[in-house]
TrEMBL record:
UniProt-recorded Gene Ontology molecular function terms: acyltransferase activity, transferring groups other than amino-acyl groups
Protein name per the record: N-acetyltransferase domain-containing protein
InterPro entries attached to this UniProt entry: Acyl_CoA_acyltransferase, GNAT_dom, GNAT_N_AcTrfase_prd
Pfam families per UniProt: Acetyltransf_1
Domain N-acetyltransferase: 29-190
Organism expressing this protein natively: Rugosimonospora africana
Gene3D superfamilies in UniProt: 3.40.630.30
Recorded superkingdom: Bacteria
Length: 298
C-alpha cells in the first residue's frame, strides 16, 4: 500500500473512532467488543427477547458466538450500567474482498430511541477499519420504514440487490407469517458520504423534489393505505412502503402480504434491471434511479 493510501486509511480510521466515541457518549452507553462467555449468554438472551421465535430455531446461540469470536470475528455490545441493551454480530467474507457481513444487530426496545443502534454500527465501522476491512454488508426488510431510513440515510449505505424470500418463510416477531424479502446493502467504510453520515450529516433524498423534476410513481399508497401500482417506466421511480408494516402484519396479514408482493414487483423488478435506490425519503418512499443519478447530500 502506498504512503498516500496508508495516510487515507489512517485518517478514515481516526475519523471513524472519533465518530464512534461521540455516538457512544450521546447514547449514554458503554460500547465494547464481547468475548467472555457471560457476555455471549447475555447476547442470546437479548436477541431472544427482541425476536421471540421457535425455541428450536433461535436467532443465534452461544456455541456459534463462541466460535465466531474465537476466530476473530466481530461481536460488539452496548451496556447501560450492567445491562446489555444492544449487540451486533458480524463475520468476515472472502479475504480478497476486504469485507465483512453484519449478520444480526438488535437493541432492547427501551433503549431503541437513544441512538444505541447507530452507536453500535459506528463502533463496528471503526473496529472493521482497524482490521483492514473496507466494506460491511448486511440485509434488511425493505418494508420496515425506520430500517430503510436508518440504513440508507443515517448510515449512507448503498442498496445493491433485492433478495426475495432470502431466509425462507418465517414465523416470528419481525416478519409474522410473511416471506422474508431483504435488501442487501454495502457500506463503503471510507467513502466521503459515509464519513459525513457518521459525523452527523445524513444522506437525504427528497421524493417531492424528485417528482417535480420528472420522477414517476412506481408504487403508491391508496386512500386506504393499500399498495397501488403505477409505472416503472422512468429514469427516477418512487416506490412507497406502508406506514407501519409490523402493526399491519398483526391486524391485517393479508394486506401485509399484498404489500410484500407489490414492493417485490416494483422495487425488485427495478433493481433486477440495474436500477438502484439512491436513498429513502422519511415520508416512506424509496427513490430509485437508473444510472445512479439524483442524490442530494445535506
Amino acid at each position: 500500500m502506498s504512503g498516500l493510501a496508508n495516510q487515507a486509511l489512517g485518517d478514515a480510521l481516526a475519523g471513524a473512532s472519533a465518530a464512534a466515541d461521540r455516538a457512544e457518549h450521546r447514547a449514554g452507553v458503554r460500547l465494547c467488543e464481547l468475548t467472555e462467555f457471560g457476555d455471549l449468554q447475555a447476547v442470546c438472551r437479548l436477541y431472544n427477547e427482541i425476536w421471540p421465535s421457535d425455541p428450536n430455531d433461535p436467532p443465534i446461540n452461544t456455541e456459534l458466538l463462541r466460535a465466531l469470536t474465537k476466530a476473530g470475528n466481530y461481536l460488539g455490545g452496548a451496556y447501560h450500567g450492567d445491562t446489555l441493551v444492544g449487540a451486533c454480530v458480524g463475520f468476515f467474507g472472502p479475504p480478497a474482498d476486504q469485507a465483512m457481513h453484519s449478520h444480526i444487530a438488535g437493541v432492547d426496545a427501551g433503549a431503541a430511541a437513544r441512538g444505541v443502534g447507530y452507536a453500535l454500527k459506528l463502533h463496528q465501522r471503526a473496529w472493521a477499519l482497524a482490521r483492514g476491512v473496507r466494506t460491511i454488508r448486511w440485509t434488511f426488510d425493505p418494508l420496515v420504514r425506520r430500517n430503510a431510513y436508518f440504513n440508507l440515510v443515517k448510515l449512507a449505505a448503498t442498496a445493491t440487490e433485492y433478495l426475495p424470500n432470502f431466509y425462507g418463510g418465517t414465523l416470528d416477531s419481525t416478519d409474522g407469517t410473511d416471506e422474508s424479502d431483504r435488501l442487501l446493502v454495502h457500506w463503503d467504510l471510507a467513502a466521503d458520504r459515509v464519513a459525513a453520515a457518521c459525523a452527523g450529516t445524513s444522506w437525504h433524498v427528497d421524493a417531492r423534489a424528485a417528482l417535480d423534476a420528472g420522477a414517476v410513481i412506481g408504487l403508491d399508497r391508496g386512500d386506504d393505505d393499500a399498495p397501488t401500482p403505477g409505472t416503472l417506466d422512468g429514469e427516477t421511480v418512487l416506490v412507497a412502503v406502508p406506514p407501519d408494516i409490523e402493526t399491519l402484519r398483526r391486524i391485517d396479514p393479508a394486506r401485509a402480504r399484498h404489500w410484500r408482493v407489490a414492493v417485490r414487483e416494483a422495487l425488485g423488478t427495478l433493481m433486477a434491471g440495474g436500477a438502484r435506490p439512491t436513498g429513502f425519503d422519511k415520508a416512506g418512499w424509496f427513490v430509485v434511479t437508473r444510472g445512479g443519478a439524483g442524490q442530494e447530500h445535506r
